[in-house]
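Section handout, structural biology tutorial.
Before the tutorial, make sure you can parse a SMILES string by hand: atoms, branches in parentheses, ring closures as digits. In the record below the ligand is pyridoxal-5'-phosphate, and the chain has 320 residues. In the tutorial you will relate the predicted structure tokens back to the input. Do not try to memorize them.
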Amino acid sequence: MPESDAARSELSMHALEDMLACVSALETVDDPWLQARGIRLRVLRLDRIHPQISGNKWFKLKDNLRAAQAAGEDTLLSFGGAWSNHLLALAEAGRLSGLRTIGVVRGEASASPSPVLQRCADAGMVLHHVSRSDYRRKHESAFISQLHDRFGRFHLIPEGGSNLDGVRGCADIVPLLGLDDRSVTVALACGTAATLAGMLLALPRSATALGISVLRGEDTLSPQVGHWLQALGQSDPCAWQIETRFHCGGYARSTPQLLDFISGFGRRTGIPLEPVYTGKLMLALYRLIEEGRWPCGSELIAVHTGGLSACEPLSSVSPQ
Ligand SMILES: Cc1ncc(COP(=O)(O)O)c(C=O)c1O
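Predicted structure of the complex:
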């Protein structure tokens, strides 16, 4: 990158950081159901930090953007589906920081792109559609070489921004929780669990972290969190656990109960949730409270990781 472009890009990174850092709202959930059980639940409203770079996305992207700049790259390339929060955030972060962005999109282009892809394109992202079978090759070096042949030099960010830079960046969510030495459970939804791993780098030992997996099946996330922590030298995190009972049918699937819960919760508290991540998180917390997981007087903080700007249509509603 020419020096003047690099300086401009560095400047806009600072402006972007300032803009995003100024919003850190911890909101108490005002719900008589919780009061009756003596539970104090607060929500870290990361969904409010920016309309497009919402929730955990900025934290996963920021060190990746820095790494690209440090390597003198002016182009970022990443992967996602037609409803990817991550591609939308990357497109906007690229636009604001003066970096070119390329989104490799799963599935053929359609005559009417999803509103998310339309917004990516409006932010200047180059969209490159690949077949589903090619998309599965996104970790293969031969496939990446083909992308280099086509697009030249770029800094590669994996799907969802879930690499070591993404994990490291999520440690910066922790100061926004305003924790002291009182015991508190910090809960968040997990897709790859990169956000959870990053927070475990910085959470104090007075906290307990609870990840709610949005994926169906065996817990493959806990070993991955272990790998990330080891790679980043965190050998002594606070207590943590991933719950696998609240996937509601699996990734981007739902149940009528989940949808009812989301609308009831929104009505009662004014806090919007979506069905892929944060709805499952909050439903899980309410179910666990009902099961008596925490005694009266307990404090919980749910991290609202965003996702409202690119709400994926549910692939099915399966009764459970
Ligand atoms: C809105 C939202 N919440 C939670 C997550 C889960 O994050 P992670 O993959 O780091 O577990 C994602 C995916 O990045 C997301 O888009």
